Amino acid sequence: MTWQTLANQLFPGGHDIAEHDNFLSGSGQVDGQTVAVIGTTEHVPIGIEIALAQAQAILQTVQRHPGRPILILVDTQGQRLRHRDEMLGINSYMAHLGKCVDLARRRGHAVIGLVYDQALSGGFITSGLIASACYALPQATIRVMGLPAMARITKVPEERLTELARDNPVFAPGPENYLRMGGLHAIWADDLANRLAEALASADPADGRMALGQDRGGRLLAQPVAEAVRTGGHVRPA
């Protein structure tokens, strides 16, 4: 689905979203309210320019439109792997973007992430995955690291990782597995405008992803470990 088609389905009341060098920005009308929109398209890698553009758009929304909901449309192949970006400190730029999303949430903005095409590695972590809640379309491609790359890093044979991925969503890509782990709140299959309105109405500033992962059986230890750290207690086996 193109971002234009997606925007028309999300905002039947109209929108002014525009694209410039694969960066999306603007606003849309849904359920009688204005939503600020930022995002990316064409699987663009997140380099320092787009990271700064997204951060600037979020800060401008916080400054000029207190409390306005923010929708992050995600389509990225991850952070840009260039010597120039690494030397300029791409990690700091992406951390800045993540901090801006966190600031918006703390200032009372409902921040919703929507993966409509591709979401990989750091480009996803510092945008949609750090939002108040993240959703995806059924055809979305989501993974933090592909199994071949994971095999190279961990020195575990790819065949073994493929076997583990059949039962453990931590190793497996796809929106269904991220739903099980609590990374996604839901998968939107139809009536996108209504789904967005519902997501905005139910957005919670508290991060409930660990609890979702535990309830859905895809991430069983994150919540108990966090609770043990908070209380100084012990982790109870799942």
Automatic annotation (TrEMBL):
EC primary class: lyase
Key words of the record: Lyase
E.C. no: 4.1.1.88
Pfam families associated with the record: MdcE (PF06833)
GO biological process, one term: carbohydrate metabolic process
Highest taxon of the lineage: Bacteria
GO molecular function: lyase activity
Gene3D superfamilies: 2-enoyl-CoA Hydratase, Chain A, domain 1 (3.90.226.10)
InterPro entries according to UniProt: ClpP/crotonase-like_dom_sf, Malonate_gamma
Protein name per UniProt: Malonate decarboxylase subunit gamma
